[in-house]
Amino acid sequence: MPIDPVVPLLPVVVDSSSTLFDLPFREGYVSSIVYVSLYVSLVAVALSTLFSVPVAVLLGLAEFPGKRFVKSVINTGMGFPSVVVGLVVLFAVSNQGPLGSLELVFTREAMIMSQFVLATPPITAISLAAITGVDGNVRDAARVLGGTRLDAALVVLKEARYGIATAVLAGFGRAISEVGSVLIVGGNITGADGISKTRTLTTAIQLEARQGQYETAMLLGAVLVALVLTVNAVVVRLGDRGGRR
Amino acid sequence: MTIQRRELLTALGTGALAGLAGCSGVTGDSDEGGAAVAGETLTLTTTTSTYDTGLLDSIHGDFEALYGVTVDAVAQGTGAALESARNGNADAVMVHARGLEDEFMRNGYGVNRRDLMFNDFVIVGPEDDPAGIGGTGSATEALTTIADAGATFVSRGDGSGTHTKELNLWEAAGAEPGGDWYQETGTGMGEALNVADQQGAYTLSDRGTFISQRSEVDLTVLVQGPIEDGPEVLSNPYGIMAANPGVHENVNYDLAMAYIGWITSPGTQEAISSYEMNGEQLFFPEAVSEDPDFQQYVPEGWSGDSPDA
Questions:
Q1: Which helix (H) or strand (E) holds A139?
Q2: Chain A within 8 Å of B60 (Cβ-Cβ)?
Q3: What CATH number does residue A181 fall under?
Q4: CA-nearest residue of chain A to B70?
């Protein structure tokens, strides 16, 4: 059955009358890879946000020599190929690597590490842009009104919140859509019962494509797009609600 | 099994909830939410052909139930599977390139190698067979003919067992693969078959992957392997080895040996031989035999009299 290009993706995926969903998957398979995808990406992005936003605030508000250099390093990080990040993390967690004793290779924790590395540059860079974009008068006003440096930082952070939300979404988008590093450090493992251990939507798509099953690969791709769309919608909605307060 | 609308919604819902749970559990135990793993985990690195045909998923349930353990099968291709074990990241390795296995054993990374099962390689191509290799009884002759005709040939180019076999065949044929007609895809077998299909090209495939994908592509077997009375050079034996605990002390050697014992046992060998796809047997077990087979434990051609001893 051809996919009608006019029909939006989401209804196609949830349309029960569609024969498209006769996927050769066992029960629980798709939900478990969706779970692993979300779990790994959300944890990585949450950790990365806790790290990146304070760094962006420090960089944005402080003046020091070499600041431009630090900025360009972060911007370069946005272009890191995920495969290379995967190889570096694999080297680190591999049995012979510096973290070998933790036995992290082919685990979700290793996947979270590599996605943390991938998500941090975009979150930091976009947050930094949002923070430096806040009118300097705002900060000055906070200080004039008797606020401490911390108060000023919080005011700036509040003003920059939409930009920071965009930064977090960009980091999430990078994490959940990349395939190179999670495949290398996670190993794309599913148990014999068909429940994913380290298989994500992207590595499942790669597996289907490797087997030449392009149709099921595209359907999993549609699930991934729907998922990213949902997460974005939720974040935007939360942002609007916060704005009205 | 089909997934109906309700199941999908439930799936998406639980996925979202689980994701949120994972989010709030950042500070907690990051292992929560996964299936409760009782006992130990065996990491088996293997080739795409054993995994993608569904064989391992179909038999591993028995082993897991028998020992109360989990098997993490990582499908990587022979070269990468052996490399993972070299780095101490695998407990057992199941691959199909004897030369590479021997090197792995000689370098001390593996112990207790057993012959496990075999199937064969076939040379497939478009039905109109532009180079005219159909009916050729010799694989090397067929490759020479393809090279002489400059007919498009798709190579895996990924260091896998199939790629290794292909390179050995070119060498045996005395032909130099290269030029516009020779395309390295760097992909798995399924993708390589699709590329060959789209380009009307020839390629070397393991029989299992070809059978599982035959309905999707317009390719046909032009040179048969030994299972269908083709040349012996196209045989495709799989071996299994445990990672040497003397090299990497934290590999799970006990479980690896339990696995090797189980997969070479009569019961599991029977399960392997009865695994079918589209009504055809994909793998032929060879671990159980009345006769001695010392060659499975040592590098090919090795004997006590050789200078290696």
A1: helix A136-144
A2: yes
A3: 1.10.3720.10
A4: A191
Domain at B120-234, CATH homologous superfamily: Periplasmic binding protein-like II (3.40.190.10)
| Per-residue confidence (pLDDT) for residue B22, from 0 to 100 | 41
Residues 239-278 of B with CB under 8 A from A: 248, 250-251
CA distance B295 to chain A (A): 31
- Chain A residues with CB under 8 Å of B3 CB are 21, 23, 25, 27, 30
Per-domain boundaries in chain B: 38-119+237-296, 120-234
> Is B19's Cβ below 8 Å from some Cβ in A?
yes
Chain A positions in Cβ-Cβ contact with residue B52 (cut-off 8 Å): 207, 210-211
Q: Does A28 reside within a domain?
A: no
- pLDDT computed for residue B287 by the predictor: 93
Nearest alpha carbon to residue B82 among B68, B94, B71? B94
Tell me the C-alpha to C-alpha distance, in Å, between residue B25 and each of A31, A43, A139.
19, 9, 35
Selecting from A21, A25, A43 the residue whose C-beta is nearest the C-beta of B22 gives A43
Check if the interface score ipTM surpasses 0.85: no
Q: What is the distance between the alpha carbons of residues A70 and A68, in angstroms, rounded to a whole number? A: 5
pLDDT < 70: residue spans in chain A = 1-24, 241-245
State the pairing for strand pair B92-95/B235-243: antiparallel
Q: What percent of chain A has pLDDT over 70?
A: 88
Picking from B103, B97, B136, B101, the residue whose alpha carbon sits closest to that of residue B222 is B136
pLDDT in tens, chain B (309 residues): 444 544 544 544 444 444 444 443 333 333 433 333 348 999 999 998 888 888 999 999 999 999 999 999 999 889 999 999 999 999 999 999 999 999 999 999 999 999 999 999 999 999 999 999 998 889 999 999 999 999 999 999 888 899 999 999 999 999 888 888 999 998 888 889 999 999 999 999 999 889 988 888 899 999 999 999 999 999 999 999 999 999 998 899 999 999 999 999 999 999 999 999 888 899 999 999 888 888 888 888 777 665 554
Q: Which fold has domain B38-119+237-296?
A: D-Maltodextrin-Binding Protein; domain 2 (3.40.190)
| Cβ-Cβ contacts under 8 Å, B251 against chain A | 95
B43 in contact with A, Cβ within 8 Å: yes
Q: How many domains does chain A have?
A: 1
Q: In angstroms, what separates the C-alpha of A11 from chain B's closest C-alpha?
A: 11
**Residue B218 contacts by C-beta under 8 Å, 6 or more apart in sequence?**
B126, B127, B197
Nearest CA in chain A to B198: A212
Task: Determine contact, residues A56/A48, Cβ cutoff 8 Å.
Answer: no
- CA dist B306 and B15 (Å) reads 60
Q: Is A189 helix (H, G, I), strand (E, B) or coil?
A: coil
- Tokens found for residue A244: 């009205």
